[in-house]
Amino acid sequence: MDILKILSRSTKHVNKSAGGKDTGSVKVPSAGTSSNPQLYHDAIPESRGKKRKREVEQNKEDAPGDEDETIDFFATKVAPPKSKTPRSADQAPQASEETVSQEKLLEEEECRQILRSHRLKVTLLPPGNAPPKKVKKSKKTKPVTKLKTKDEYTQVYPQPLMAFSELRDIYGISGRMATNLKEQGYKIPTEVQMGSLPLLLGPQTALGTSTAESVGKIAGVDLLAVAPTGSGKTLAFLIPLVNQIMQKRRTEKDKEEHSLQAVIIAPTKELASQIVNEAKKLSLGTGVKVVGMRKGLKIIGTTGAETGSGHDESSEEEDEEEELSKKLVQGVAKTDILVTTPGLLLSALSSSKPGEHHPLPTVQTLVLDEADVLLDPLFRDQTLGIWDACTNTDLRVTLWSATMGSNIEALASSTIHSRRTKLEIQDDSRIVRLVVGLKDSAIPNITHRLTYAATEPGKLIALRQLLHPTAKSTDATQSLRPPFLVFTQTIPRAVALHAELLYDIPAEAGGSSRIAVLHSDLSDAARSQVMTRFRNGEIWVLITTDILSRGVDFRGINGVVNYDVPNSGAAYIHRVGRTGRAGRDGGVAVTFYTKEDIPYVKNIANIIAASEKQAGKPASEASMQKWLLDALPKPSKEEKKKLKMYGVEARRGGLGAGKEGKEAKGKKGRMQISTKSGYERKLENNRKGAILGSRRRIREAQKEENDDQPAVEDTEWGGIDE
Ligand SMILES: Nc1ncnc2c1ncn2[C@@H]1O[C@H](COP(=O)(O)OP(=O)(O)OP(=O)(O)O)[C@@H](O)[C@H]1O
Questions:
Q1: pLDDT, position 285
Q2: What is the DSSP string of 208-240?
Q3: Which of 146, 220, 279, 421 could bridge to 135 as Cys pair (CB 3.0-4.6 Å)?
């Protein structure tokens, strides 16, 4: 059925599939996949990279076209390859880095041109734990921290991955994994995959020509990757991981044995379970096992020392600890890859000594997905605790996000360096930073709308207008075709908005079952049921909090509504990045703001302006007018910090609560979610007050009358009056 028609007040129900081609002339993400998942392909000068360009063209021809595509809107991802008898992992050819034919590699200048045209920037971070230099500019100005000097940060031009076929031809991934990729329909690598896969699969091959003179041989890399939302970072970290484990398993005698090789940390259960699914599809038939962490799952085997039979003698303690870490059974969960939220794994690692954790000595790869939030104060201790528990000297760490502030980068690199010093690791590895496009910016392929709704009731009216467009419009910015997500600041607000909108979808279109709410107060089972129903297209409007703002991939979602303004620029980038995934065009991101939000929206307005500039929108068509940008006040650092931690004050804690969740004095109900304006509510309250007052007066008058009667009559029942 045409969702938009059903929701339009003036039109009748048309019985067509929700994900069908009947999406009007507006091209929306739910209409199908994009023929090219890449976001940037600036022209390369004619003479450069000809050979490779041909390959890309070829791939483009092979790619599925939008027109013929009839997909179930943001339906479950391409089904995993059918389990044909898998080719044994041992049969896969093994291409060592030395055997790669130099003919297959590009010249450095070609690499440079291609990387530039895809807006990829690769930088080697300083080799040692070089502290940032304090530079005093003048006597009057404060000392500034100069983070970059030419010698410390080296821009390099590694081999880009031009086609997935190169994964096998150049980097020697197994045939089985190559088949899995093909069967899932991956054809053209996205920018982050172009840049990161060569670096992680064969750093020497990838960096060979680029670094020979300037930085010498590089044995391995720890990677900080910053790439737009929906640009395929999951696949970028999973391919090297599964490949590495397969290679290791080839050398093991007992093929049934699994020992924990890699830990992937994600901030929410929803994202962790999505990663598990992706990893399972990729490793089908490879023998690599993936498990999602859950409460009660044993990661560490118990030993005599743990059950209380160990000695307390301090002279023996160190030896015992060493013995213990050797003896601990790492494969209790019997898995190669564990995907987890930070809290779950850290509590599974806690030892009987408070504040101490069991080590994970077999883990060789640690992946932090949404690394900036994992290293933010909320999760920092838990994430660093797990990182610290990974004691293997060969550990490689990769960090991924669409946003990464310089403080997070500094924390990550200092953790890597101090760990190397602590464990006395000496090898030729380097930290590499990969940035795709403009750092910390929103994807350029969606339409942004920043809408002033003045008041809370104004926001509700505006949302209803999006849900029930009254005028037929071909302009994607005037309507929002479900499925879409609505973000609120708090759980009570999400619940209240859900209650308010519950009956907005006509019964003929499925009624209240089409709208749902998801937040962290729900049980795990309820959360996962809502996720499944949304993915299956049963739910059209999903109201949620920031719990779904990061990483979650609902392929063809058409839009995002920020019912409440996000708490930071990064939160905006991630929320709106739920649409426009894998290069799909037509996604819409609507942000409502009221007078309470005015001090905070400049940041968002700037992000929108930068995104439109990136997309090449001429100034005349920009939705962010210069006068508005100039007029909006600039929040102070302190205000930004407060906003990030607690959200907009007027909405803190719930519907309209003040500080610490208490209703602000004299402002009770000011921010409640309701269609009625404050004036209407005042009239209603006055009416109610008048009725109550008149009842009270009647009661008082009756009481006075009764008081004049003899006392005995109080207890006598006079029967029902005729
Ligand atoms: N090379 C590719 N070609 C086509 N689709 C791809 C490709 N790589 C990934 N995708 C698809 O792109 C979508 C987004 O990928 P993914 O979830 O990994 O994005 P992400 O970069 O991690 O985003 P976020 O920052 O929001 O977490 C997924 O549906 C994935 O299957």
A1: 94
A2: HHHHTTTT----EEEEEEE--TTS-HHHHHHHH
A3: 146
